Predict the 3D structure of the following.
Amino acid sequence: MTEKQSHHREIYAEAEDGGVQFAASADRWHLHEDYVHLAPQRGKQGLLRFDAQLKPFVDSVDRQALVIIDMQNDFCSPGGWTDASGLDYRRCREAIPGVVRALEVARQRGMWVIWVYWHNREDLRNLGAPTLYSFKHEPSQKGIGQELDHGKVLTEGSWGAQMIDELKILMRDEDIHIEKVRMSGFYGTHLDQVLRTQGISTLFLAGVNIDQCVSTTMEDAYFRDYNAVLLEDACATSSPDFCQQAVVFNTRQCWGFSLTTEQFASATPFD
């Protein structure tokens, strides 16, 4: 082992660029006073600086993906499940312009685009009692898999499980689709395998509900040592405002970074 290789295994070592090293070898970060370098092991080609909170970061574009979560009719359309449950589906629709902007940027940069969404079995054998109860607190309330005017809630093949029209037309054949059966996009899916085999380390997260499926997916990404970045104005929720505020706070303090779609678009070359 060379001296340089040994040095890259030292946690909190002083890095060659003057930063403080986090983790080791290919997964290391370098913490500086005014930014965090997420890919110091890469050459400078393709590096961008993002003006994020709690701290700006530098990363390599070729290992980034945009992850869009649950932008489905049951959450975002009139007559869907959110609407039928007495919640304001229009609040979920507030994420749409931001998701569209994020998609435009991702396409321009050649990033992977990953669509994550609920697609439950019609017989509901994929769901246990705790999950069923979390969405049906009263006998009269419509739960997952039960009939609404447009079909069964979040069931594979149903109208409610389809992507909203505004985004459906923007999907491409080469995009990655992940069908999930829990709030988190990682639980019981092949999302982790897809990310690792394609060399994706940094996830820009968008969609609904920010305080449920987006946040649990982001937390699971963080637990697996992915670099998690929340696109604040490309997310929304039908929950009270303080729920979204708590997610943004915890993202900045614990799980990763947050920024707006304007900041996402205006990242600058790093040299």
Summary: The mean pLDDT is 90. Residues 60-262 form a domain with the Rossmann fold fold (CATH 3.40.50.850).
